[in-house]
Amino acid sequence: MIKCYKMKNKIIWLLDFWGDYYPIILAFFSFLYSVSLWFSGQKLEGIFVGIWVPSILGFSVAIRQRRRDREKRISK
Length: 76
Description:
- The chain is mainly alpha-helical.
- It has a domain at 23-75.
- 92% of the residues lie in helices and 0% in strands.
- The chain contains three helices and no strands.
C-alpha cells in the first residue's frame, strides 16, 4: 500500500512539473534540434527551426494569460 501511495505521488509530481514547464522543455529541444541542423550543414533549416523557440515561448505566455483571465472571470 505504501509503494502504491509513493508511486501515485511521483506521478502527480511529474504531471504537475510537466504542466508547468512543458513550454520551456519543448523550446529547449527545439533549440538543440536547431543547433544540430546548423552544425550538420543545413543552415537554412537550422534557422527555420530556431525561430520556433520564441514562438513556443510566446504562445505559452499567451495561453497562460488567457487561462488566468478565464479563471478570474469564473471566480467573480
